[in-house]
Automatic annotation (TrEMBL):
Belongs to the asp23 family. It comes from Vescimonas coprocola. This is Asp23/Gls24 family envelope stress response protein. The lineage of its organism: Bacteria, Bacillati, Bacillota, Clostridia, Eubacteriales. Pfam families: Asp23 (PF03780). It comes from the Bacteria.
Length: 116
């Protein structure tokens, strides 16, 4: 949980907020099939349903009040992966900062699979 000071008091933002915003922003980008989750039981990568997207996102709170975001995605076949990842990084950074007021230090994107 991150705490933000305002003139009227303290605002606490849970990691669920960051993961929901991140998952929605990432999956709205062109070329993204969805969020990914690697199962610990079978080791396979699974496409997450919309209500479980947050499993593909990890948020780290930094000492300087910023957040670092790690997300795992599945991309569509035939897209330029580097371009899609750059698009996601920019979009996630913008949307999270705009909606929470918290600066995003970095966004790390892991492409776990490609749909065929």
């Amino acid at each position: 949980m991150i705490k933000v000071q305002s003139q009227r008091g303290e605002i606490s933002i849970s990691s669920a907020v960051f993961t929901s915003i991140t998952g929605a922003a990432a999956t709205n980008c062109f070329g993204v099939k969805g969020m990914a989750y690697r199962s610990m039981t079978d080791g396979l990568v699974h496409l997450l349903r919309r209500e479980a997207m947050s499993k593909g996102v990890k948020v780290t709170y930094n000492e300087d009040g910023t957040v670092s975001i790690e997300l795992h995605i599945i991309v569509e076949n035939g897209v330029n992966i580097a371009t899609v990842c750059r698009s996601i990084m920019g979009e996630v950074k913008y949307v999270v900062t705009k909606n929470t007021g918290v600066e995003v230090r970095e966004v790390n994107v892991f492409v776990d699979s490609i749909t065929v």
